[in-house]
Amino acid sequence: MQSTISIPQHWDYPRFALEQRTEQGTILGLYYYPSGTELAEQFDEGWRYVLMPNKNSNEISYLQENQFQPLSPQELFTKITAEIEFYQHQISILQQQLAVVTGGSSNG
Predict the structure, then answer these.
(1) How far is CA 40 from the centre of its chain?
(2) Contact 16, 27 (CB under 8 A)
(3) Long-range contacts (CB closer than 8 Å, 24 or more residues apart) made by 32-38
(4) What gap in Å lies between CA 2 and CA 79, rounded to an integer?
(5) 7: CB partners within 8 A, 6+ apart
(6) Residues near 23 by Cβ (< 8 Å), separated by ≥ 6?
(7) Can you tell me the distance from the alpha carbon of 66 to that of 75, in angstroms, rounded to the nearest whole number?
(8) Backbone phi, then psi, for 49, in 5-degree steps?
């Protein structure tokens, strides 16, 4: 089942989505500073995004929409392909370890 997020009609719609990959990292969260609030007066009204540069990082960035760029389709393809190859290699290693543990027999 897909989750649904409701955004008030008087707010602008966010340009980017959760888990979207960007040049600065993956979007983990987002929040909005509505007009007429103290935060919007200090930091400008609009969406803020929480990005993590990579999955092994303990750093996160808080950026406005104009402070980062989405990946191009080619960059996205390249990153996803590399990630698939990494996990296929990890699976291969685990299968070899399992074969050693089971004495070479497979139950699949």
Answers:
(1) 25
(2) yes
(3) 32/7, 34/10
(4) 25
(5) 13, 14, 32
(6) 68, 69, 70, 71, 75
(7) 19
(8) -120, 140
Under 8 Å CB-to-CB from 53, ≥6 apart: which residues? 24, 25, 59, 61
Query: If you average pLDDT over every residue of the chain, what do you get?
Result: 91
Instruction: Specify the 3-state DSSP secondary structure of 108.
Output: coil
Tell me, what amino acid is at 107?
N
Cα distance between residue 103 and residue 26, in whole Å: 41
Cα separation, 14 vs 23, in Å, equals 17
- Residue whose entry in the numeric block shows the structure tokens 């990959």: 21
* pTM for the structure as a whole: 0.77
pLDDT digits (tens, 9 = 90+) for 37-72: 999 999 889 999 999 998 888 999 999 999 999 999
**Quick one: how many helices (H) and strands (E) in the chain?**
2, 4
What tokens were used for 88? 């296929």
Hey, what are 82's tokens?
């590399």
